[in-house]
Amino acid sequence: MSILDRFRLDGKRLFITGGSRGLGREMALAIADAGADVVLVGRDRESLDRTAGEIRALGRRADTINADVGTPSECETACQQALAEFGPIDILVNNVGGRRINVPTESFPLDQWQKIIDLNLTSTFLCTKFIGGAMVARGQGGRVINIASISGMVANRGIGGRSYETSKAAVIQFTRAVASDWAPHRITVNAICPGGFMTEPNVKWSKDNPAIIDTFKSLIPMGDFGQPEDLGPLAVYLASDASRYMTGASLVIDGGYTLW
Q: How far apart are the C-alpha atoms of 158 and 238, rounded to whole Å?
């Protein structure tokens, strides 16, 4: 067997939230390119259809679920639909998330705090409960990949909305705890912690808050932001047999930002 064969995902099926755009799209395409079929979940029908078409062009099956998993009831419904119509699921990527709010803590409304907690953390919990729980019940192992952030390890400078840092830190610890629970079931649970990537939200931030973005970039040892496609190979590794013995890890991919 070639070492590259351990990265193949033929016969596997991926469920990914926020999978039609940005980092999610690139991970979905990479995992499909490695052989897996894909269930994409997202809010925007147009981008879902476009990304599904790109996956089908790779010769893989692509199904879509139009839902906002930041709303707990929609998240649960999306998981149940995927299991009923497209299961079994072998790989779960909890990708959806974001800051969305730049408000100081002393002025932060409770309802907006809860909205971001639900987007980043509750969605991860619910998808892990239902999709990952079905892996436990099936007894064939599986892969759970949670997209956390270096913001779960450090505080971002010059920007409010600390529900983001809080929820991403919780995702990291949730990853570790569930990894310990599910290791006997041959289900690995790992987190990816991206740094600065030029996704659509960050392109918007760069226009609205250029000083913050320029400062961020100046503090990256490699001198530039990552591109969404840089995340694809890491996602394939964590989804594949190549990472069979890795669980509970939080893998930082940030151009060295957290080194200083």
A: 33
Residue 241 falls inside a structural domain: yes
- At 76, the pLDDT band (50, 70, 90 cuts) reads very high
8 A C-beta contact, residue 144 and residue 125: no
Domains identified in the chain, total number: 1
Give the pLDDT mean for 168-194.
Answer: 98
Distance of alpha carbon 240 from alpha carbon 238, whole angstroms: 6
Q: Which of 164, 237, 245, 257 is catalytic?
A: 164
Tokens coding 10:
């033929």
Which are the contacts of 185, defined by CB distance < 8 A and separation ≥ 6? 135, 136, 139, 141, 142
Evaluate whether residue 208 is within a structural domain.
Answer: no
Report yes or no on 205 lying in a domain. no
245 catalytic? Reply is no
pLDDT given for residue 205 in this prediction: 65
Is the residue at 259 inside a domain? no
- The CATH number that applies at residue 169 is 3.40.50.720
The 10s digit of each residue's pLDDT in 95-138 is 999 988 888 899 999 999 999 999 999 999 999 999 999 999 99
CA torsion through residues 133, 136, 139, 140, sign: positive
